[in-house]
Amino acid sequence: MRVMKWSMIALAVAAGTSQFAMASSQDDSKGFLEDQSLKLKTRFEYMNRDFKSGYGNATRANGNKTTSNVPGIKESGYRQDSGISQLLTYESGFTQGTVGFGLDAFVGGAAKIDGGAGHAGNGLFATNGDGEPEDTQSRAGGAVKFRVSDTVIKYGNQFVASPVFATDDSRMLPEVATGTLITSKEIKGLEVNLGRFTALGSQTGMGRDSINGKGAKGLTSANIGGATYQFTDNFVAGFAASDVDNYFKKQYINANYTLPINDSQSLNFDFNGYRTKGDGQELAGAVDNKIWSLAAAYSIGAHKFTVGHQRSTGDNGYYYGVDGNSTVFLANSIQISDFVGKDERSWQARYDLNMASYGVPGLSFMTRYVKGDNISTSSNTEGKETEANFEAKYVLQEGPAKDLSLRVRYAVYRANDAYNADYATDNNDLRFIAEYPLNIL
């Protein structure tokens, strides 16, 4: 990784010596208010997980309801929740001058529509002491930012999308990280990121630091860094690394290449790889792991066909969560499973259809199937798992509700007894998501 890191930067500097822009982003700043934006995103989400092995939901202990995951002592065989949320985000522009100053802020709230203690547990809402989902939840935050030339320094509450530290937004409200992130684009085609985060709030825990690692108290600090470079119009590569205090050190590499065939056909190859090594107190236990995925996609007109392979080796499966629940940039990380078990090998076949070519812009379909095997389990029996996904999405193209998206997702997950005991259980997962983004300013 170290050799690659320096060779990539050297190439970028060499390629960029004659590519500095005459004017930087800060030189073009229009002002704090002139470049401001205010956006409101409304989301409705319904989620039902129907467990197929007698694996249900809430149990009773001493007269109180809990959400234990122990098979065989459940009150119901499915989990069902629904709710609506709104997330208002404000981003100022930067003041003019050599150093630009700005502010970002957000406020979000969610309300439960359905989901009692007997059926809750899909992660849409936090639960109280009696196991009942909270009726409402809300959070707010903000950050200050400075810009010099094409480099932005941001401190405070923010959403992060690094492959080694990524906040999740798959439920009602997104995870929120607290810390500093530096993003630099001084050389054309090269983006460099450096950051330090000291807290991570979960999607249902509205506190500043509500993410918990396995058997641990949560995030103390995470230092991250990375870079991507656009070598050509068709080839981009990058690396990233993190040091999560008393958990692990992690490195990531990506290469993405598109081979154009003609105006309507192309081939794309995408490689992703992680290396994780326990560090300090190793609060998550044994996490030493190497995992990689390679996907190849053939596009022809409205159709795209993808095949992928993913492989994991090490003392345990790939671990993430305390560094954000989206920190899994792998081809076979899909609706239910990530296919990241110890020693697991998995294969994917996927088909996408864009109906714009057939006169229905905004309508798309997707289906995929992933099969994993060779999983090392506590019973020394080979673990196996499969998952099939089906998805339809429609985005309104015009009218008063322009950009409203309607999305249906359905997954069928199955695992053999050896892997069920260690990790998951058979279930059918149905989700309906409606989302409406509105630009107010």
TrEMBL record:
<dbReference type="InterPro" id="IPR023614">
    <property type="entry name" value="Porin_dom_sf"/>
</dbReference>
<feature type="region of interest" description="Disordered">
    <location>
        <begin position="57"/>
        <end position="76"/>
    </location>
</feature>
<dbReference type="GO" id="GO:0016020">
    <property type="term" value="C:membrane"/>
</dbReference>
<dbReference type="Pfam" id="PF03573">
    <property type="entry name" value="OprD"/>
</dbReference>
<keyword id="KW-0813">Transport</keyword>
<keyword id="KW-0732">Signal</keyword>
<comment type="similarity">
    <text>Belongs to the outer membrane porin (Opr) (TC 1.B.25) family.</text>
</comment>
<feature type="compositionally biased region" description="Polar residues">
    <location>
        <begin position="59"/>
        <end position="70"/>
    </location>
</feature>
<protein>
    <submittedName>
        <fullName>Porin</fullName>
    </submittedName>
</protein>
<feature type="signal peptide">
    <location>
        <begin position="1"/>
        <end position="23"/>
    </location>
</feature>
<dbReference type="GO" id="GO:0015288">
    <property type="term" value="F:porin activity"/>
</dbReference>
<dbReference type="InterPro" id="IPR005318">
    <property type="entry name" value="OM_porin_bac"/>
</dbReference>
